[in-house]
């Protein structure tokens, strides 16, 4: 879960496993864009269009975009 500024509020072990994140990116306050950038560097391309846009534009206010970041 991220706050209105795109910073991580809550995570758990499963979140880290699902997204293949190192422990340092699971700390409260980590920016969403940092997580997406890490995944891109690892060759894990974000499928979610909101994540793609956040990677391309770190200043984006993804939380105001009106789109869901949930993939069904």
Question: What is the gist of this entry?
Answer:
By secondary structure, the protein is an all-alpha fold.
Tell me about this structure.
- This protein is an all-alpha fold.
- The protein contains 3 helices and no strands.
- α2 packs across α3.
- The longest helix is centred in the middle third of the chain and has 10 residues.
- The two termini are 18 Å apart.
- The C terminus is likely disordered.
What kind of sheet is the major sheet? none
Estimated helix fraction = 25-40%
- Along the chain, the helix and strand elements come as HHH
Secondary structural class = mainly alpha
Radius of gyration: 11 Å
Uncertain spans: 61-72
What is the tally of helical segments?
Answer: 3
Mean pLDDT: 76
- What is the distance, rounded to the nearest whole angstrom, between the alpha carbons of the first and last residues? 18 Å
Strand content: under 5%
The overall strand count is 0
Keywords:
72 residues; mainly alpha; 3 helices
Question: What is this structure's SSE topology?
Answer:
Blueprint lengths: L12 H6 L13 H10 L7 H8 L16
Helix pairs in contact: 2-3
């Amino acid at each position: 879960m991220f706050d209105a500024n795109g910073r991580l509020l809550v995570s758990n072990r499963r979140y880290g496993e699902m997204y293949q994140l190192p422990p340092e990116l699971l700390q409260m306050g980590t920016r969403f864009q940092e997580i997406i950038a890490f995944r891109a560097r690892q060759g894990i391309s974000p499928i979610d269009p909101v994540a793609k846009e956040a990677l391309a534009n770190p200043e984006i206010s993804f939380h105001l975009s009106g789109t869901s970041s949930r993939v069904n």
